[in-house]
Amino acid sequence: MTFTADSRMNLDRFWDTIEQSGEIGVRRPGGLSRLTLSDADREMRNLFVSWCEEARLTVEVDELGSIFARREGQRDDLPPVMIGSHLDTQVNGGRFDGIAGVLAGLEVVRTLNDLGHVTQRPLVLVNWTNEEGARFSPPMVASGAFVGKYEPDWVRNLVDDEGIRFGDELERIGYRGTRAARGGQVDAYFELHIEQGPILDAERRAVGIVTGGYPSHGMRIRFEGETAHTGPTPMNLRHNALIAGARWLTAVDDIGWDFAVHDGKATGSRLTAWPNKPGILSETAECVADVRHPDPVTAGVMAERMRRAAFAAAAIAGCTAVVEDEWTWGGAIFDQSLINLIRSEAIRQNYNWRDIQSQAGHDAYHMAMHCPTAMIFTPCRGGITHNNEEYCSLEDLEAGLNILLHCAVSRLDRPYIT
Ligand SMILES: [Zn+2]
Asked: Binding positions for Zn(2+) 1 (predicted)?
């Protein structure tokens, strides 16, 4: 057997890996709670590594725990083609977000092994640590370190809500590797992902060709006030940081409604306060919010309003606001030649496709800063995600899988200049 234009992925074998992954880190029925660097994450990593070794891949772990599994090419000195995503999940996560992308890459490897096809370039399959940011904020830190955006030491010093360090958990689960987090040359990076939105499912599309990401701006703000008794303290002498935070987050939500008609979105996602007890005004509050809009200029306007709203909320509550962190991502970041390649494969294989913009953050956003990058979206039922009800059928995934296979091989076997 050889690789031909008609070669297809082994869907049943792929589904079997999805189901085995779906047994690790179960919390509510049907969903997963596989937080990064947890015991469940370790168990999944171990299984993934065993699958990679069975597929005769050379496994390396970097200093932030990302797993790189390499399949040799005929010209092994050439920069590799990478396929990746993440195996960690949200607290109330699904069985497909990220996971489908990593296991799709594994199935590409297995299919090439079945066919005895040795590609020109090496293929590297990657599982990025802490894509979700559900335990250690911000998200996508390992791919960020790969492209030089974050220092590995900074990442290892992140702490979770219990005050546990990223670096200590990495050691505990045995996934602090020796490979440098900063990556070398990469020929191309592909990431298959569920859409995490309702468009493909509603339009009955088999696959989405991701042209870019909604420009997004996020902020983490700390409000500082002063503790006092809730009873006798007059309203004009209060410095209640909890109220500053709450006011900011509702103001951010209002911004979302103001821009909703053209699909703008604004989210207040986190508020923690201290002491956060009855009978006492809070001294500090920490909040996270973000805004997204398909038009970059409008997204910038929303971001500016979000920023001003923080200081306005602080002033009303007699507090101060400190911007602790801010980030931005999205835009037309993906590689046009890869987008064209994916589109032409969708047409050649006669799948019902459409162009689509990503509305969520992905490791591919970081990789796009480093090498030609593209994403393939598959439908997911009702767009439900970050929820234990998240679901894709094998039919939902089929087009994306077969397109990924052919696009990856096309790039792996692309002629090279010696
Ligand atoms: Zn994801």
From this structure: 86, 97, 193
CA angle (172, 177, 181) in 5-degree steps: 120
Nearest-angstrom CA–CA distance, 142 and 62: 9
Pick out the residues of the known binding site for Zn(2+): 86, 97, 132, 193, 386
Domains and CATH numbers, the chain: 11-196+360-413 (3.40.630.10), 215-328 (3.30.70.360)
Q: Quote the DSSP letter at residue 119.
A: -
Write the pLDDT tens digit of every residue in 326-382. 988 899 999 999 999 999 999 999 999 999 999 999 999 999 999 999 999 999 999
- If one counts every other C-beta atom within 10 angstroms of the C-beta of residue 345, the result is 22
Residue whose pair of structure tokens reads 């020796």 in the numeric block: 178
C-alpha 339/C-alpha 186 separation (Å) is 17
Residues ≥6 apart with Cβ < 8 Å to 203: 354
Quote the ligand 1 centre to 86 CA distance (angstroms).
7
Residues of the binding site: 86, 97, 132, 193, 386
